[in-house]
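Quick one, tokens below. Sequence please?
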């Protein structure tokens, strides 16, 4: 492939890695960078371009596994986390309870979401609505959170966060925006809510990516492997940077600055689309 095309793969990997886990909507950024600017479907074809976006998402998932590998192993009893009090341990059941609501609703309403909500107009609206939700979480969340580590999590709290995560089925709302905001309103501190969000993202994103890859397997073009590889590695590297930076930042600045950014992004999208 030509160098300019590989640079596009690098740029899209950067966008995916830097936005997938921040509460700013990777969907909105992909619309601006790819659908409205780079337009990879013009040289990859629509099916191959869609597959590429799945591949770079897998790069982002790998970054989460790399950072949280000890915690992920502890979920299935293969690693003991230091400092965990007896009888208080975050485990795989918390994650399953958290991902179940969105998983069920996603399967039930998949066709409706794809047909009616996956449009740039609805993404613009969801960016604004999600931003308001994040500001509400910062303003009305408990001043002294009762859950400050993952090992403080209860199954009830995990289920409630999972129910709020269903808002992220609306494209552009942002999974991390929904779950972190919901967690904060339910008494988690910002860092713990982010940790729970990232860990839940592993089975959710891996499952969705696997289904998408399998369904598009016949559309994969071997001549595009270099493009896929550059995007995958780029997404992995930038997701590593993004996650580590975000986990430090969220404890200090909370959600409101990200909400303001989302409003600016929605305004930019609206100008691009409607003017």
């Amino acid at each position: 492939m030509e160098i300019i095309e590989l640079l596009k793969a690098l740029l899209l990997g950067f966008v995916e890695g830097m936005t997938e886990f921040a509460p700013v909507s990777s969907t909105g950024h992909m619309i601006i960078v790819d659908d409205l600017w780079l337009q990879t479907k013009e040289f990859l074809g629509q099916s191959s371009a869609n597959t590429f976006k799945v591949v770079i998402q897998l790069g982002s998932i790998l970054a989460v596994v790399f950072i949280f590998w000890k915690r992920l192993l502890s979920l299935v009893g293969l690693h003991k986390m230091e400092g965990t009090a007896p009888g208080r341990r975050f485990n795989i059941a918390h994650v399953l309870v958290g991902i179940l609501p969105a998983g069920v609703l996603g399967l039930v309403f998949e066709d409706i979401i794809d047909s009616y909500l996956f449009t740039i107009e609805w993404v613009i609206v969801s960016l604004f609505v999600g931003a308001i939700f994040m500001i509400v979480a910062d303003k009305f969340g408990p001043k002294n959170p009762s859950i400050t580590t993952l090992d403080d999590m209860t199954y009830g709290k995990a289920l409630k966060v999972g129910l709020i995560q269903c808002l992220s089925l609306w494209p552009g709302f942002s999974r991390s925006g929904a779950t972190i905001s919901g967690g904060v309103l339910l008494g988690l501190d910002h860092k713990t809510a982010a940790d729970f969000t990232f860990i839940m993202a592993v089975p959710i994103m891996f499952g969705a990516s696997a289904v998408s890859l399998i369904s598009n397997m016949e559309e994969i073009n071997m001549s595009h492997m270099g493009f896929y590889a550059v995007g995958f590695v780029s997404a992995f590297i930038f997701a590593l940077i993004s996650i580590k930076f975000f986990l430090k930042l969220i404890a200090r600045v909370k959600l409101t600055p990200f909400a303001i950014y989302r409003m600016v992004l929605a305004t930019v999208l609206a100008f691009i689309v409607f003017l």
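The chain has a mean pLDDT of 91. The two ends are 35 Å apart (CA to CA).
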